[in-house]
Design a protein that fits this description.
Elements (H helix, E strand, L loop, with lengths): L1 E4 L5 H16 L4 E3 L8 E7 L21 E8 L2 E8 L2 H18 L8 E3 L5 E7 L9 H4 L2 H4 L2 H13 L4 E5 L21 H20 L3 E6 L6 H7 L19 H17 L5 E4 L10 H18 L5 E5 L6 H9 L8 E6 L13 E2 L2 E2 L14 E8 L11 H11 L4 E7 L23 H4 L1 H12 L5 H12 L1 H14 L2 H8 L30 H6 L10 H9 L10 H21 L6 H36 L2 H11 L4 H13 L21 H16 L1
Parallel strand pairs: 1-2, 1-3, 3-5, 7-8, 7-16, 8-9, 9-10, 10-11, 11-12, 12-15, 15-16
Antiparallel strand pairs: 4-5, 4-6, 13-14
Helix pairs in contact: 1-2, 5-6, 8-9, 11-13, 14-15, 15-19, 15-20, 18-20, 19-20, 20-21, 20-22, 21-23
GO molecular function, one term: hydrolase activity
Organism: Salipaludibacillus neizhouensis
Keywords: Hydrolase
């Protein structure tokens, strides 16, 4: 029997205790709730700062425990254990209970519970979630999400996942969400819904924000700037109807009425949704032709003033402008004294492809040169928050804890408040990629298939020292303890493939790389289906990572007998890819068979990444041989290039990739290639075109 003593009035503690009670029951234990310690039972006692004065047992909150942090203490009295969870606040107590729950699941009893203090590394641990309404991107992949994302059952599951993984911020991105949330008092026809329809929407948003708050999760609404609803244009500004580009990019079009409308929307939104934590907007799209100062003035006149006019203060995320002197941004933030501190300054890490190198090489708008102005000297009232965008893999499961730790270690300076994790081109709700007829399909939502990805980021952002054992144990609880470690090691090995590709292949904005499909797009590739990274593309690119040598630079150095010391060569990348891929394949071959179809699905994803790694390795070697032939005329190099592209190398690896993915994945919408559906099989003809490319060079 275990007696539980905790602040029952706390929604956060109650949610965590509910999960703890379930874990106790699953282990065959019984529990009861008491108001004080029971010497006849084991005890779990939760103490938060506001309860300290009521404690008669001499406990105190260690002054080193920070907000959201917790301490676990264990006391043995004869044969009875008492576990104390001490925290400054409800969130800390909640996380402490979840930690204890995990330990109990791993060890099976209270005698093995570890004692320690854990404080969060970052106070801002956010997920980026694009909404399918008034969405910045338009594609079938967003259209199919509208029903699921409107379902509060989905949000309950998603928010529970966030809570369990220690995420504490949900950012909801939509160009102009106001018509779905309020009826502006002075512009009532700007909202296209009836009173009854809008009431349904308000119930949805109110419930969503309340559920998030109950789990210690702040909610921010991120909008774009000089936008209005279609109903506003129709009823209040009909001359703007002729502007066919009003949806997305374009020159700034703003009137006093548009500013008044947006300003009132901001104020009314804050007043009507008391559980909404904060706002943000973008100083970019629809501001063409405006100077940096004019853009900032518009945001101040509309968003800042709208926030000031509201009945309560809200927090703010300042999205760093794309091409602006950091001093302008600093001044704009540091001169404001009405926003709760810190203001969160969002910067895209390596533009739209954080899954490249953990070194900061560029941000939105270009190279990282000059960014130091944001943090040198130290900010007065804001913190940098890195946007770790993932536009590179949506379907295959990915897990590489070493990369995340290295990222945090290299970029988690004192002036950094945290990270955003998420995508512009993918909504992790309805899973449209997996065959629902497959016995693998045993989850409800896409994020549940990618459970380890979210666990890795959330737990490591909270505590970067979290050991691999935690993640191996989580895999073991699902698929058998003996399988946990080899599964994690296999994922860690093969998940380096997209990082190697993104480091080797310079990409910029959202659509320019899709690593798991070996695709790169630009304006010519978008919506044409011709996005495959050909051998010629590899020859023409340059790496984003400055320590990497391109194929052409490497070959030139080899021919000129110049040193490559201090650089990573294409051959070294290929060797590492092959080694890691083979290691991953060996590990999953060693995993014992079970009756779990989902384990088969996990192993299939590992195999798919391994085959992509082997394919990339063969293609790099083919590129080096081809370039050697071009520069020297050595026909043996031409022969080697063909050999690396044909079976049993690149061609065979791609065919095997098709086989393993087609067994459980279906053709799916992909924003990167517009209306063209994606599958690995669809790009097999372009795999063969590489062979023709090399052969034609010999003929010429």
């Amino acid at each position: 029997m275990i007696t539980l003593t905790y602040p029952e009035q706390s929604s956060r503690v109650n949610l965590a205790i509910g999960k703890f009670k379930k874990a106790i029951t699953e282990l065959g234990e019984t529990w009861t709730v008491g108001s004080k310690k029971d010497s006849n039972t084991h005890n779990i006692i939760i103490v938060t700062k506001d309860m300290e004065e009521n404690q008669s047992n001499g406990l105190y909150i260690d002054p080193s425990i920070s907000a959201e942090g917790f301490q676990i203490q264990r006391v043995v009295d004869q044969d009875k254990f008492t576990i104390f969870i001490l925290a400054c606040d409800e969130s800390g107590a909640m996380y402490g209970i979840l930690e204890l729950c995990e330990q109990l699941q791993n060890y099976g009893d209270l005698s093995s519970v570890n004692e320690y203090i854990i404080n969060p590394k970052f106070s801002f641990r956010a997920l980026k979630f694009n909404l399918p309404w008034s969405s910045y991107r338009k594609n079938k992949s967003f259209d199919v999400q509208k029903e699921t994302v409107r379902d509060l059952n989905f949000w309950k599951s998603f928010l529970d996942m966030m809570m369990e993984n220690r995420f504490n911020v949900l950012t909801l991105w939509s160009m102009h969400p106001f018509p779905y949330m309020i009826k502006p008092k002075n512009f009532p026809r700007a909202t296209p819904f009836t009173d009854e329809e809008l009431a349904d929407w308000k119930e949805f948003w109110t419930s969503l924000f309340r559920m998030a708050k109950e789990r210690g999760i702040e909610t921010y609404l991120v909008t774009w700037n000089v936008f209005v609803s279609e109903s506003f244009r129709e009823h209040y500004d009909p001359k703007s109807i002729s502007d066919e580009k009003f949806y997305h990019l374009g020159d700034a079009y703003s009137t006093d009425q548009i500013k008044q409308y947006n300003r009132e929307c901001v104020t009314q939104l804050i007043d009507e949704y008391p559980d909404l934590s904060g706002l943000s907007t973008s100083l970019g799209e629809r501001m063409g032709g405006m100077s940096p100062e004019e853009r900032q003035k518009w945001v101040e006149d509309v968003y800042y003033q709208g926030m000031k006019d509201a009945k309560r203060p809200v927090k703010y995320i300042y999205r760093a402008p794309f091409t602006i002197d950091p001093s302008i941004t600093r001044d704009a933030i540091e001169k404001n004294d009405f926003m709760p501190e810190p203001v969160w300054l969002e910067l895209k890490f390596n533009w739209s492809h954080a899954y490249s190198t953990p070194k900061l090489r560029m941000t939105h708008g270009g190279l990282s040169d000059g960014l130091e102005g944001y943090w040198n000297p130290d900010p007065k009232n804001y913190k940098i928050t890195w946007m770790a965008r993932n536009e590179d893999f949506f379907t295959l499961r990915w897990a590489q804890p070493g990369f995340i730790r290295e990222h945090i270690k290299g970029n988690g300076h004192d002036y950094v408040g945290g990270y955003f994790i998420g995508s512009e081109c993918f909504i992790p709700a309805y899973d449209y990629s997996h065959s629902r007829e497959s016995d693998h399909f045993q989850w409800s939502y896409a994020f549940e298939k990618q459970w380890l990805y979210y666990m890795l980021w959330g737990r490591l952002l909270f505590d970067p020292s979290t050991p691999d054992e935690v993640f191996a144990n989580a895999l073991g609880r699902r698929y058998g303890q003996s399988n946990g470690r080899p599964l994690l090691e296999a994922y860690s090995s093969v998940s380096k493939m997209p990082l190697a590709l993104a480091s080797s292949f310079l990409t910029l904005w959202d659509f320019t790389l899709y690593s798991e499909g070996f695709l790169s797009t630009d304006t010519s590739g978008y919506n044409s289906g011709k996005a495959f990274i050909s051998l010629e593309d590899l020859l023409n690119t340059r790496p984003i990572e400055s320590t990497y040598l391109s194929i052409r630079d490497y070959v030139d150095r080899e021919i000129n007998q110049e040193s490559t010391e201090g650089f990573v060569t294409p051959i070294q990348v290929a060797d590492t890819l092959e080694k890691d891929s083979q290691h991953g394949l060996e590990l999953i071959a060693s995993i014992s068979d079970t009756d779990s179809p989902v384990l088969c699905c996990e192993k299939a994803d590992i195999k798919a990444w391994a085959l992509l790694g082997l394919y990339f390795a063969s293609k790099l070697r083919a590129g080096v041989s081809y370039q050697m032939f071009v520069k020297t005329g050595d026909e043996s190099e031409h022969k080697k290039a063909l050999q690396w592209l044909e079976s049993p190398h690149a061609n065979k690896h791609w065919d095997d990739l098709i086989e393993v993915t087609s067994s459980h994945y279906v053709e799916q919408p992909l924003m990167h290639i517009g209306e063209t559906p994606f599958s690995w099989e669809r790009f097999r003809p372009q795999v063969l075109e590489d062979i023709d490319f090399v052969r034609s060079a010999f003929k010429n």
